[in-house]
Amino acid sequence: MLNNMLASYELLASIAVLLVMGPIVYLIGKKSGRAARWLAFLAAGTSMVLLVHVGIILLDPYAVTLTITLNSSTWTYSFIYAYGSQYIPYALQFNVQLYPFTTTLNTIPWVYSSFDRSIAYPMFTVYEVIPNPTFKLASVISQFSNPLANLSIDAGLIADGLSYPIAMLISGLGALVMFYAAFYMKDVESPGSFFGNMLLFVGGMLGVLLATNVIEFFLFWEVMLIPSYILVNQFGLTEKRGITALKYFLWTTFGSVFMFIGLFMMGVSLNSFNFQQMYINLATAQTTYATYLAGYIPYGTTFNLWLSLFLIGAILAIPAILIFIGFAVKMALFPLHTWLPDTYMEAPIPVVLLLSAAMTKTAAYGIARFLVVYMGPSVQMLTVSLAIVALITAVYGGIMALTQKNLKMMLAYSSMSQMGYILFGFAMITVFGVNGSLLHIINHGICMGIWFMVAGIILKTTGTLDFDKLGGLSEKMPATAAIATIAGLSVAGVPPLVGFQSEWMIFAGGSMATQYLLTGLLLAATAITLSYYLWAIRRIFFGPLKEGLEKVQVPRSLVAPMVILMILVVVLGIAPAIATQYFTPIVNQLLTPWYGYQQILYLLLGGP
Amino acid sequence: MIPYSPWLVWIVPMLGAVLTPVFSKIHPKFRDVCAILFAGAAAVIAVSMIPDIWSGFIILPEPQILGGTSLYPWDISQTLSVTLFGTTVNIPIVIRWMSLVPFDWTYLWIPNIPLNPPAPLGIWMPQGLYAGVLVDPLSVFMANVTACIGFLIMVFSWGYMHGEPDLTRYWFFMNFFIGGMIFLVLADNLIQLFIGWEIVGLCSWGLIGFWHKAREKSPVPDYVTEGEYNAYCGMKAFVTTKVGDVALLIAIVIIFFVSGTFNFAMLQQNAAIQFANPMYNLSTNGLGWVSDLAIRGMLPAVAILFFGGPVAKSAQFPLDVWLPEAMAGPTTVSALIHAATMVKAGVYLVARVLPIFFGVPQLLQTLITNPTLYNLYGLTLTPTQWLLLYIAVQSGVQTFFITVASIGAFTAFLTASMGIVAREIKKVLAYSTMSQIGYMMLALGIAGISTITAVGFLASTFHLMAHAIFKALLFLAAGAVLHAVMTKDMFEMGGLRKKMPITYTCFLVGSLSLAGFPGFAGFFSKEAILGTCLDANQLIFFAVAAIVVAMTTFYTFRMVGLTFHGPESKHVRDYEKEKGPVHEAPAVMYVPVSILAGATLVAGWFEPSFRQFFLGPFYTYLENFQPYLLGGLVFSEAPSWLPHEVALLWEYWHYFELTSYSGWISELASAWPSILLSLGLFVLGFIPAWYYYISRRGIPESVTSSRVGGAIWKFLYNRWYIDRLYHIVFVNWFLAGVAWLYKNLEVKVLDGFNYVSAKVTIVVSDKFRKTQTGVAFINVLMIIVGIALLAAIFALW
Question: Which of residues 514-553 of A touch B (CB under 8 A)?
């Protein structure tokens, strides 16, 4: 029990340490660059270690659930959410539940059955933000859920199976990138600004992931944007950094506007801003509405459930599309991706590492949380449109990457292409598709981390990233070549690496949604991915050593973070259950009831 | 069998691969010896699995405890009483200590995803993806071929690659390849098979491009150094096979959607109707996945997409363009990967799914003619629906097998024609490999479209084994020759017969086997395939196969003659002046070659034992996973109108005929027309080869530079221009198109939008600024106008 209390505080500490140390590092940086660098690494490392412990407790099968309410009307405390078939929000009465014990035989089914668990740290609740709203954007849903609810903001932090793996990815990458940057940006002027902003950037991203409600999500979204703008503006590599940073900022803000309007509309429609309460309200509304429809339509319970879901989904489609546009800008989906190539070329390597491997994941998480895991079945009519956008992104990014002559540009387009794969899995709204996409998020984060670190090493030691000038570097940097090859193969989906595990699940998900043609086209795009990675590896590393490269020597300190990431790629490829054990129970539980829904739709509409 | 051998046989080589860098830090020789020892251990473990298949049952090293009730009489059933919080629950448990072959040995790998588990009837298992090995005659056979020939090639490469730099990478990829290939053949589900499939593709890429640092001049003008060209060849192989892999994966996920599982056992059981565990039944009308695909009209498409994987991996037309370039790698790599094992993976996959596809129409026929049975399985179709279903299934399955046979036959002809004019010795062997695999595909296809399935299947697998042995032999002997004279081009060799007698003898043995001379392994296997064509009355396929026999003989003895007979070439004479006389290969190289030559001589005579291995004491191979349910006669070759007991007797007589020596001899005796024809074709192909290349009486240039002969020669030498076409379309045009798209769409339009919108904003705000005059009179005037407007609006509304 003490363990669990501790985990709750650790969650808060993991963000707080980053946000507090940011300004401190900025101030210290004015005196000593070295202290700033290592303090930043220490902060990021602490945050990562804390989150690792939270993850261990999240899996504890002997956890005792304890919910205590302090008798105060404005403060509530709760520690662990109980095992149950639905989410239970905050503020419950005092009760104690013990988990079933395991026995010596491993075949008893309910020990392995799905559970959803989360660790939360509630901070405060602001009641009656919009007391008894006089305007309702979607009265159909509201009148069937809880018409007397007040829209309040329960601010807090929550790490459940969906947010924890991505949060772990981001904080882990943050720590490794800080270590890498400590050596790579040794001689940067104004180190305080650089490392302080990096810490705030990582802190903002963690906040986005661990947010409990819509308003908090948006708040941290903006907190994440500003340090990254400063980093690109101040530390960009060319003269055009001001313009490029402004381009990035304006595009993202334009997306945020759409996203905020959509989220607000969705919150008002469902009578709550809290994620979990929104889901409960949606499920209640759907059941009540189905019962209401049963009075008018005589085709049976299943059909009524489906029809009510369809109609509610039609109402939620507009906020969903607005939200999607917002995330589409951040994830750089076609055609809203134009900020990506220039920004990635402009920013220095440690910043690009965080932009590509971490920031785009927050957008993917947003899509998972809002559009898929919670609202998924309701917005199923958007499946084909989203899938087409995803497919175009994947193919377009792939073929653009094929023509590039500069490694960083190629990696930028590759990053965009993989976001297409992730969206495709989410668009399918099936258990396999969503699980595959979540695992692909982890794969992409790790492998892009490796590849941009490789690009940094090549830039630092040879001074160029052009394919025409590079060649035969495997002689001088054999470890880097091997690690880069493994990362490239993982992105292309070659077993026994984690990219294959995520990709087969995405394709299986597409098949389960009966979208064979789109799945087939996406599969064909993997051939393009493999081609440009193999070609890049061949042009950089294989063949005889080009002239001018004889004096290349790679410092070990820059290779060390890549080795850790490579081990993760291989280990997760052989045992993906380490990562999937977090999110498969939630996804399974929330989407499997709707499995039958797809079959019904298929039978009703007929044909392949 | 050695305990846990189905798992160890692939884990041990992979472990050896991963430990190779560690060993190399200790001492290079230690690393070499350990790499070979790991491969040897894999061979020993693989051989230890044979007695279990022969006997037909396996005693498990540790008993499995499963929940549920078992139908098999040898399982021990218990009831477990659990008392929890005052309530007592009785849970039925099965203790399984032995199993009949085939045995599916699984462990839970990824839990909590909604996949139907490979649970036998009556058993409960938690949902999720299971990793497992399938202990079954076909997989153990392939594992043995891979492990034993792999071990011999590893020993050979110790001598061949002696003194090369970067051997750590070489041993890593070789061991990883052997582990991956065995993982592929022992896989019990499609995901694991695909993992092994890609692993061997990956190792093939790494090993073809092994000499990427070579600084000699490149043989093609597109690249500067030979190292770059080698790396390009590796990439071409990987990307071409990836195209096939994409098709295979599409088919796998579609099959997954309609069947809910990846496991071969479950797929076979549920192919026609839902036989399996009712706890995991996805289908609402009782139909199996093949039937489901058929009534949706998707069966031919899915089956052909599925076949795309084997087409690429086994280098059949139209994805055969990578194998000749793959000869850029070391000869040991060509022997292991591109002759004996990886290219056979496609044949293995087709053989693995053959019983699944083939059995469905048969089973549907049995069910239609037995109304009691389809009531038993809860099927709800009317007779018309049954008829339509049967037509759909039959046409889909037939399409698949005819495609397999046609592509096999066409590839055999196409690549044999290319082999006739090839210059390099390894390229001739590469074309020969593709051609012989065409034979194997042909036999499997015919097995699927006729009623003599067992015969065709056994012919194909026997040819697989014989070909693996003699092709590895030929490649290794060619490697010894290459090592001795340092050239790949046959026109620069010649007269090596007296200088390398052991290599010559072994090479001659291999060539005779390849050409199908009586007594050698290749003769019996080729006769089996030709006999299959005749027995199934497929005369067109028989004609193509026969023509290819003649072509095979011709290019084989052309190769022998150019390399070993005739006068020495200038290159050899110059080489001998510089480096001394050409000597025989060292013992570490000629011993494995001789072992393979001995195997070629002997293997053919054991064909009945080979058949016994597959058919087993219970004759359950083709029925694989449905024994004991319908009396074990689901996929019977007996005519369906026979009563059940008579059909059983027919089965056992047929089994005796196939697996006994007397039956074999009478089978050969009754095939005397075919034997005579193939001998005649052998002579037909041998005579020109002897005339032009062995005895050197004729001058080949007189044929190849004449008008008609020259035109044909040019067409064949350029590989029918297929490779050129692919390069122009898929590389040149594609890259040019994409570069155009980047310049015109991405940079001009999409990025340009940013600057256009910025300009528009500036222009608009400039114009709008003019309205802010700052003159007091105008401001007051506008206030009055505004008030008047608002008043009007309020008044009207």
Answer: 514, 516, 519-520, 523-524, 526-527, 530-531, 534-535, 538, 542-544
Residue of B nearest to A508 (CA): B253
Chain B positions in Cβ-Cβ contact with residue A494 (cut-off 8 Å): 198, 201-202
A272 neighbors A151 (Cβ within 8 angstroms):
yes
B124 to A109: CB separation less than 8 angstroms, yes or no: yes
Q: What is the pLDDT of residues B570-618, one digit of tens each?
A: 888 888 888 888 888 888 998 999 999 999 999 989 998 888 888 776 6
CB-based contact, B735 to chain A, within 8 Å:
yes
Cα(B119)–Cα(A226) distance, integer angstroms: 55
Please tell me the distance in Å from B303's CA to the nearest CA on chain A: 14
CA distance A387 to A29: 47
CB contact under 8 A, A103 and B80: no
User: Would you tell me which residues 332-371 of chain A have a C-beta closer than 8 angstroms to some C-beta of chain B?
Assistant: 335, 337-339, 341-342
- Predicted confidence at residue B275, as pLDDT, reads 66
Locate the domains of chain A by residue range: 1-135+149-212, 228-375, 382-587
Residue pair B454/B622 in contact (Cβ under 8 Å)? The answer is: yes
DSSP letter for A122, please: E
CB contact (8 A) between residue A105 and residue B111: no
Q: Which ranges in B260-298 belong to alpha helices (H)?
A: 264-269, 289-295
A244 interfaces chain B, CB cutoff of 8 Å: no
The rounded distance, in Å, linking the Cα atoms of B576 and B585 is 15
Mean pLDDT value across chain B: 87
Give me the count of residues in chain B: 797
- Distance in angstroms (rounded) separating the CA atoms of residues A309 and A593: 13
Report the candidate in B311, B614, B315, B335 with the shortest Cα–Cα distance to residue B468.
Answer: B335
Is residue B187 within 8 Å of B196, Cβ to Cβ? yes
Report the pLDDT value the prediction gives residue A560, as an integer from 0 to 100. 92
User: Does B249 lie at the interface with A, CB-CB under 8 angstroms?
Assistant: yes
Tell me the C-alpha distance between A448 and A455, whole Å. 10
DSSP A324-370: HHHHHHHHT-TTS-THHHHHHHHS-HHHHHHIIIIIHHHHHHHIIII
Out of A103, A489, A523, name the one closest to residue B249 (CB): A523
Task: Return d(Cα A337, Cα B394) in angstroms, integer.
Answer: 49
- Please tell me the predicted confidence (pLDDT) of residue A411: 96
| Cα maximum dimension of chain B | 121
Inter-chain CB proximity A511 and B194 less than 8 Å: no
> In this prediction, does ipTM exceed 0.85?
yes
Pairwise CB contact (< 8 Å): B199 & A495? yes
pTM, entire model? 0.89
Inspect the interface and report whether the beta carbons of A543 and B297 lie closer than 8 Å: no
At A65 the pLDDT is 39
Q: What is the mean pLDDT of chain A?
A: 80
- Take residue A262 and report the two structure tokens written for it: 């959509």
- pLDDT tens digits, one per residue of B112-157: 788 888 887 778 888 889 999 999 889 999 999 999 999 999 999 9
Q: How far is A244 from chain B (nearest CA, A)?
A: 11
> How far is it, in rounded angstroms, from Cα B173 to Cα B18?
9
Cβ distance of A107 and B65 shorter than 8 Å:
yes
Which own/partner contact pairs does B658-662 have at CB distance under 8 Å and 24+ positions apart?
Answer: B658/B454, B658/B455, B658/B458, B658/B608, B658/B611, B658/B615, B659/B608, B659/B611, B659/B612, B659/B615, B660/B608, B661/B608
Q: Answer yes or no: do A431 and B114 touch at CB < 8 A.
A: yes
Per-residue tokens: B513: 């086997």
Residues in chain A: 608
Low-confidence residues of chain A, pLDDT below 70? Answer: 1-5, 60-155, 592-608
Give dist(CA A335, CA A396) in Å, integer: 10
